[in-house]
Amino acid sequence: MAENSVFLEARRLTRVYRRGSEEIRALDGVSLTIRHGEFVSFTGPSGSGKTTLINLLGCLDNPSTGEMDLGGKVIYGSGNDLKEKALTRIRREVFGYIFQNFYLIPTLTVRENVALPLAFYKKPGAEGEVDRLLEMLGMGHRMNHLPGQISGGEMQRVAIARALVNRPSILLADEPTGNLDTKRSAEIGEILQDLNRNEGLTIVMVTHNSALAGLGGRKIEMRDGQAYEC
Ligand SMILES: Nc1ncnc2c1ncn2[C@@H]1O[C@H](COP(=O)(O)OP(=O)(O)OP(=O)(O)O)[C@@H](O)[C@H]1O
After folding, report:
1. In whole angstroms, what separates CA 84 from the centre of its chain?
2. By C-alpha distance, which of 201, 205, 202, 225 is closest to 213?
3. Which atom of ligand 1 is found nearest the CA of 225?
4. How far is residue 158's CA from residue 65's CA, in Å, rounded to a whole number?
5. Name one GO molecular function term (predicted).
């Protein structure tokens, strides 16, 4: 896919949560475009809607109203929302996800954790990606360890390898360094920057870490459910 072509376009996304009789407008009309090869960071105060937005962009949740296209295909909107089966396919084939809490399976080795997505869906050549990615991320010597035997920074490297094993077009990272100290955070930041620059991976990241937010060049601040380009 040509670098700089439009990858994702969101128009007037809203997301309202209901808690009893209370209505929380977590997203209040967000429109944005993400191009292939971009590295976009979302910052903003707690409760401003960052996770809600990244979940919508990553097809993990549906908006209350609004439209979104991905690769020219309608995901939500105009009464043509994709059905769950098609969304599941997009989640597997298009996206890689990493989270603050890593979500590794404690009883599986590092290598088995990274290979896990291949049990559900395997892109051609993906088998060879397990070892390549672990080597690339400096985890080649830890392949047979369990998650409990490695550090937090190493766990996030494993989670990144797992997210990338099926060669996604876009990596979504929600607070990827939220559980890491400054040094480990900077290391994960460098890895993400290399993946973006050297492998052309599109990255969308939510972070409270201002050093990390500057890495990708494009920064969007969330305030009260709205998005502002910085
Ligand atoms: N499942 C839910 N049910 C009800 N309200 C929710 C739900 N998820 C989020 N909210 C509310 O929506 C608003 C936006 O939440 P969101 O998690 O998107 O913010 P955030 O910017 O990611 O916050 P943080 O930086 O603390 O993670 C908040 O007021 C939050 O309490």
Report:
1. 19
2. 205
3. 14
4. 36
5. ATP binding
Cα–Cα distances (Å) from 31 to 28, 53, 67, 82, 184, in that order, read 10, 11, 9, 19, 33
**What ligand 1 atom has the least distance to the C-alpha of 222?**
21
pTM value > 0.90: yes
From CA 177, how far away is CA 160, in angstroms rounded? 12
For the segment 32-75, what is each residue's pLDDT rounded down to a tens digit? 999 999 999 999 999 999 999 999 999 999 999 999 999 888 99
Nearest CA to ligand 1 atom 27: 46
Atom of ligand 1 nearest to the CA of 208: 25
Please work out, in degrees rounded to the nearest 5, the angle formed at the alpha carbon of residue 65 by the alpha carbons of 47 and 217: 55
Distance CA 70, CA 10 (A): 9
Ligand 1 centroid to Cα of residue 193, in Å, is 27
Domains of the chain with CATH codes: 39-62+80-229 (3.40.50.300)
Closest CA to 161 of 202, 219, 111, 122: 111
- Give the binding-site residues of ligand 1, using a 6 Å CB cut-off: 17, 19, 24, 26, 44, 46-52, 222
Query: What is the rounded distance in angstroms from the CA atom of residue 162 to the CA atom of residue 111?
Result: 9
